[in-house]
Amino acid sequence: MVEWITTDTPVAYPEALSRMEQIVEGIHAGTAPETVWLLEHPPLYTAGTSADPADLTDPDRFPVYEARRGGQYTYHGPGQRVAYVMLDVGARGRDVRRFVKQLETWVIAALAEFNVTGQIREGRVGVWVERPEKARSPDGALREDKIAAIGIRLRKWISFHGISINVEPDLSHFDGIVPCGIRDHGVTSLVDLGLPVTMNDLDLALKRGFDEVFGQSG
After folding, report:
1. What is the DSSP string of 122-156?
2. If I label 83, which of 4, 50, 147, 206 is the partner at 20 to 30 A Cα–Cα?
3. Distance between CA 126 and CA 120 in Å, rounded?
4. The dihedral formed by the CA atoms of 63, 67, 70 and 73, expressed in degrees to the nearest 10
């Protein structure tokens, strides 16, 4: 069975990283269950393994942490649900691409509960929503805003880090980075889309969809 942990007060990034690593070691040793940890962080930026320093446009705005997960620069802060996913990918088939696809499917299923159509785009990590009400891009394409980020790391085939979904963060906080290295599209949230969704609403949607995507024990 997967254990769910929900922390209601913002968790400092170094504290979260330390706790994740402890859980990962416990899962590998057989002394801890697979775990999904739902939390928020105080405002901060994290740099993934592919981060370009030029994409950190305001380095003094918030603390910046080396995340050692896949991906580029990401913002975390209040109003954004972070779900750290510590699962035994080794016992689940050792298929990293399939695992990332499962994370994407899980996010999209949760968003669908609020009538939001999340989409995946080749070459753009994360989950996106079309914004037909916005002016089209210079090439005539629909504008798309990012609503969720995905970045994972594996250690001994145990995953950690995970996903973040924008419920009601201060979207101006994303201005200090080029989110995930993508300059041509924006960032949105459930509340920005006009949906009065609470953190608890999203948590329930994530829990409802988890077993269908991942199974209870892999």
Report:
1. TTEEEEEEE-TTSPPPTTSPPPEEEEEEEEEEEET
2. 50
3. 7
4. 10
Radius of gyration of the chain (CA): 17
**What are phi and psi for residue 146, nearest 5 degrees?**
-85, 135
The string over 11-48, giving b where at least 16 C-beta atoms fall within 10 Å of a residue's C-beta and e elsewhere, is bebeebbebbeebbeebeeeebebbbbbbbbebbbbbb
Asked if the model's pLDDT at residue 41 lies above 80, the reply is yes
Q: Is the pTM of this model over 0.90?
A: yes
Catalytic residue among 180, 182, 187, 190: 180
pLDDT score recorded for residue 180: 61
Q: What percent of the chain has pLDDT over 90?
A: 81
